[in-house]
Amino acid sequence: MERVVTINLNGNSYQLEEPAYDALRAYMSRAEAALGQNPDKAEIVRDLEQAIADKCAARLSPGKTVVSAAEMTRVLEEMGPVEGEAEAGAQQQQQSSAGPQHEPWRPARRLYRIYSDGAWTGVSAGMAAYAGIDVAWVRVFWILSAIFTGGFTALIYLVLIFAVPVASTSEELAAAHGAPFNAQEVIDRAKREYGRFTESSGENWRREERRWRRSMRQQQRAWESSWGNASAQPAMAPAQPVGYAERMFAGLFAFVFSIITAALLIAFLIAFFSILSSGSIFGWTPPGDVPTWLVLVVLAIAYAAISSPFSALQRTSYATLSGRRTGGATDGLATLAIVILVGAFAWIYSPDARDFMEQGYVVIRDFVTYWDRHW
Amino acid sequence: MPVADEQFAGLRKGLLEFAILTFVSGRTSAYVGDILEALAPTPFATQEGTLYPLLSKLRREEFVDYQWVESGQGPPRKYYQLTDKGAGRLDELAAYWRHLTSTLESLGR
């Protein structure tokens, strides 16, 4: 499943899957480029839009309201390339040379994570695409280097998961491969993706689940987009996504703030349990006339006050990353994952941290004993 | 067949205008769907991407003209007719075509 974009084709609204929309937009911009200075350009573009709209309408029914990428591929194949005046007027020289008249726009090659090709996070797939090598080599590199450096490169991998943006649009996928972005490219990829979809649907529940999640988001997005685009021009570009650099920094910040919030959470829990079991926080004992419950309340308020700016920053970073306001689940899970990973690293590499964690175990054991005795 | 298709693409392309004018001349009016459908089984099979720019060029040169006609379903459609000037152009093309073929035949003798 894909995100859905609502567009206006010559006065009627149509819902397209996002790759279908990308393909259509590429086709139309190519058509406009081919028509160049043609005095009837606007009219021809309207005619073409109407023809595409008719073809889409023929593929839709009351029970099927979204044009898929594969269907758009077919529609655009039926339409055929739009030829400018020179070609249509039978200039055989241009025909025989058959070279591309317009150098296709080639975006800067960038490192992206590529979910669709990736096994887990898409980091390796993105690196392979960037370097133009097979993804298997990159995976072998990560595994071997993680073994030989004692897990140090695994930490780098973890940072990359956050810092490297996911390629989510066709343009970004093209940039990830450093490939020229044009209609044919989009159509080819749409075909490939469709093929993969039909092959693997039903086998891989993880992918299904991801699709389901995306479709939930997509419904919301479609609603917003149709709302915003209701009276917009035909084939208007969606709101500009956040740039590469912003997303990279947002990713790094998300990582850093996640670690900070995770550390604060751990500190809070340890303090909480140690107050209950031993009556002291990190070696400091509150004055005897202050009741335990009050210490706990003060502790909770202090934790909330200290951690809330960090978790707000963390949420903002995640929101920037994903381009929408996230619910608690995503960053909550990420925080949990980081707590576990950082904890594991600390356990392995820092004897102090190990002692501390063992004490933490003692703290919890004391708490359980305390609980048993008093309740 | 695909080889011949490939090789003579330029030739057919040059004659597409001729084919369209001929088709439109044979009826009172034709819309793009009719033209595409009629040409599909012929060597002149073409697509919207080619046809729309070509029709707009023919209209600009005043060989064809169109009228909006309401269709039963969907938006109104453009129905194209041959103009007098277009009929003249078609005669010229036909005459030139005969000249070309007869020249080719005479060259072979």
Q: How is this structure best summarized?
A:
The complex is a heterodimer of chains A (375) and B (109). Chain A has 375 residues and is mostly helical.
Read across the widest sheet of chain B, the strand sequence of neighbours is: 1-3-2
Q: Biggest interface in this structure?
A: A-B, 31 and 22 residues
Distance between the termini of chain B: 28 Å
The percentage of residues in β strands of chain B lies in 5-15%
Major β-sheet of chain B, in short? 3 strands, antiparallel
Description:
The complex is a heterodimer of chains A (375) and B (109). Chain A has 375 residues and is mainly alpha-helical. Chain A has 3 domains: 4-83 and 182-222, no CATH class; 106-179, no CATH class; 244-374, no CATH class. Chain A has 15 helices and 3 strands. Chain A has helices at residues 18-35, 41-59, 69-79, 85-88, 92-97, 123-131, 135-148, 152-163, 170-177, 183-200, 205-229, 244-278, 292-322, 328-349, 351-374; strands spanning 4-9, 12-17, 66-67. In chain A, strand 1 (4-9) and strand 2 form a beta hairpin. In chain A, helix 1 (18-35) runs antiparallel to helix 10, helix 12 (244-278) crosses helix 14 (328-349) and helix 12 (244-278) packs across helix 15. By secondary structure, chain B is an alpha+beta fold. Chain B has one domain (2-108): Winged helix-like DNA-binding domain superfamily/Winged helix DNA-binding domain (Arc Repressor Mutant, subunit A, Orthogonal Bundle), CATH 1.10.10.10. Chain B has helices spanning 2-7, 9-25, 32-39, 48-60, 84-108, and strands spanning 30-31, 64-69, 77-82. In chain B, helix 2 (9-25) packs across helix 5. The two termini of chain B are 28 Å apart.
